[in-house]
Write a structure and sequence with these properties.
Layout lengths: L2 H15 L4 E2 L6 E2 L5 H14 L6 H14 L15 H4 L1 H4 L9 H14 L1 H13 L11 E2 L20 H10 L4 H7 L32 H5 L16 E2 L8 E2 H8 L4 H9 L1 H16 L9 E2 L63
Antiparallel strand pairs: 1-2, 3-6, 4-5
Protein name: Peroxidase
Family: Belongs to the peroxidase family. Ligninase subfamily.
Organism: Exidia glandulosa HHB12029
Length: 362
């Protein structure tokens, strides 16, 4: 007879104990931790000045550069300082590496911004902010306070799409990641497009799936479809035939979708957007902390918004494709026959356009 009142009192105590946000000195933002006021303002600047308030090319490029910067790290030897902003701080060196081709424009955009907030902040914090604009993306924690890089990462720390899987697995293991975690990181390809693999101008920005502005599981499904065409001047090193006109397929993605160490995780991501997003959140957070101790950083995750819900919480076959087009990869579980096919006729997928911004070296 006393249970309900006691529960009510307990809930009231919890609610009373929850910290309240306070108005920041700028009179605009409110944060629980006053030290995060600066980052609330930086978040707004990223959204308005870099991303233009949409999940498009600049978000993809921030997520890409976050990986390229952080993976300059090794558990066994000196391969850089991890997530330290060296790709901006020492851009003259690192942007000359073949694996970083096509990434220079976002560095040009970020450089004046990074001078205000710090090199590594501009990358890892910016990626967390950018992903919050993408429907279906998980909330990435925002840990700030990393010191800037003191040295460039060496060449060959970023795996290339034409590398054989053994080489890629070994490089990722050297940085502390399993083949399964590699697949989780590749969820970023759901908002990705090509730059630097095919030099044909018409396919600059050719997306890796048919829904490049949504953090859904389409890239994992569509990479399992039989490839039938090259969208540009292919074949090029690191490129494989894609299943849809206008869509680009990396050789490494095709291999991982069918490799015995990664194919079942790949299929799992194709069949569950929520699982894909959760696994990406965990692994991308791990990536963002390479070279640093979380306990030494300030947690300002409170300023990062939760992304809108996924526009397609369940994968679907693009128009004109069916279960018959699947190339089975996972040896222990058949791909189910329950997914629907998008209505209508197949149409070419347009390239993702470069976004213009008001500042930066262009």
């Amino acid at each position: 007879m006393f249970a309900a009142p006691f529960i009510a009192l307990a809930l009231a105590a919890v609610a009373k104990a929850a910290p309240a946000a306070s108005l920041c000195p700028d009179g605009v933002h409110s944060t629980i931790n006053p030290q995060c006021c600066f980052w609330a303002n930086a978040r707004d600047r990223f959204i308005n000045e870099i991303f233009l308030n949409v999940c498009q090319e600049n978000v993809h490029s921030l997520v890409r550069i976050a990986f390229h910067d952080a993976i300059g790290f090794s558990l066994n030897s000196d391969k850089g300082g991890g997530a330290d902003g060296s790709i901006i701080q020492f851009g003259d060196t690192e942007l000359a590496f073949h694996a970083n081709e096509g990434i220079d424009f976002i560095v040009d955009f970020l450089e004046p911004f990074a001078n205000d907030v710090g090199m590594t902040f501009a990358i890892q914090f910016g990626a967390a902010v950018g992903l919050s604009l993408c429907p279906g993306a998980p909330k990435i924690p925002a840990f700030v306070g990393r010191p800037n890089a003191t040295r460039a990462a060496p060449d060959k720390t970023v795996p290339e799409p034409f590398d054989d899987p053994t080489t890629i697995f070994a490089r990722m293991a050297d940085a502390g990641f399993t083949p399964t975690e590699l697949v989780h990181l590749l969820a970023s390809h759901t908002i990705a497009d090509q730059a630097g693999v095919d030099p044909e101008p018409s396919v600059l920005g050719a997306p890796f799936d048919s829904t490049p502005f949504s953090f859904d599981s389409q890239v994992f499904l569509e990479t399992l479809l039989v490839g039938t065409m090259f969208p540009g001047s292919g074949p090029n090193p690191g490129e494989e035939q894609s299943p849809l006109p206008g869509e680009f397929r990396l050789l490494s993605d095709k291999v991982f979708a069918r490799h015995n160490l990664t194919s079942c995780t790949w299929q799992e991501n194709a069949l569950s957007q929520s699982t894909m997003a959760s696994n990406f959140q965990t692994t991308f957070t791990k990536l963002s902390l390479l070279g640093h101790s979380q306990s030494s950083l300030l947690d300002c995750s409170e300023v990062i918004a939760q992304a809108p819900p996924a526009t397609a919480p369940k994968a679907f076959f693009p128009a004109g494709k069916t279960h018959a087009d699947i190339e089975q990869g996972c040896a222990t579980q058949l791909f189910p026959t329950t997914l629907s096919t998008q209505a209508g006729r197949a149409t070419p997928i347009p390239p993702v356009q470069v976004q213009d911004i008001a500042f930066g070296r262009k």
